[in-house]
Design the sequence.
């Protein structure tokens, strides 16, 4: 059934959805990696496509920026469209000293400064983590392709511009590899729905060195991350 945010009909969406934040990156993946593509959503210009990759049916859809946005789209995919796995593929800011621009980072855990988990009324602090089966497949796919990946803890932040200038230094002390804005919510939504989720990131800039990729290259250059995600879709 259609939702206020997704015009897809039952059966339009595959069991695995790749979810970049940028809907134009979803279009790029559909145009350059998938065959027999159909577009199932253009509501709010949050493009969604289904096609095949090496004979496997897979969908790709934008998820927007921030935890409220990916929370809406992932919830609807899991609950209304029978999606089993969502693989977030996005950009991140490097924090660790050993992280470089263009590195691929896989979020084993997603720390957060968000209050997103408050809705679950848990009697403690919840630790959002990836699905291990997807994580293991991603690492194995990267090894087969001779792609170096960093697996570790990432930060899902509510703040792109943070008023407290020492924030990233404090997270760095806790061995956070990179910062982005969506994975923690995705991992929580998946856990609550008893579904699978994984976040694979490409480092587009580094918080401390100042090195950064231009916006155009962020849309199209993250090929290694995209190929890993496509390989593990089933």
Sequence:
């Amino acid at each position: 059934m259609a939702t206020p945010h997704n015009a897809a009909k039952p059966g339009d969406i595959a069991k695995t959805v790749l979810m970049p934040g940028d809907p134009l990156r979803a279009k790029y993946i559909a145009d350059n990696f998938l065959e027999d593509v159909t577009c199932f959503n253009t509501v709010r210009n949050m493009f969604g496509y289904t096609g095949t990759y090496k004979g496997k049916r897979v969908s790709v859809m934008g998820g927007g920026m921030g935890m409220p946005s990916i929370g809406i789209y992932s919830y609807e995919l899991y609950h209304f469209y029978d999606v089993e796995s969502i693989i977030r593929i996005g950009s991140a800011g490097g924090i660790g000293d050993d992280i470089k621009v263009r590195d691929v980072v896989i979020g084993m855990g997603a720390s957060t400064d968000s209050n997103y988990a408050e809705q679950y009324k848990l009697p403690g602090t919840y630790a959002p983590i990836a699905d291990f089966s997807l994580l293991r497949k991603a690492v194995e796919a990267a090894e087969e392709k001779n792609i170096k990946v960093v697996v570790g803890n990432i930060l899902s932040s509510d703040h792109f511009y943070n008023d407290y200038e020492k924030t990233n230094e404090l997270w760095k002390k806790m061995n956070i590899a990179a910062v982005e804005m969506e994975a923690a919510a995705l991992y929580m939504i998946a856990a609550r729905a008893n579904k699978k989720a994984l976040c694979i990131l490409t480092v587009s800039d580094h918080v401390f060195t100042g090195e950064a990729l231009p916006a155009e290259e962020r849309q199209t250059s993250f090929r290694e991350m995209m190929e890993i995600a496509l390989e593990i879709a089933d």
Summary: The CA atoms of residues 130 and 198 lie 5 Å apart.
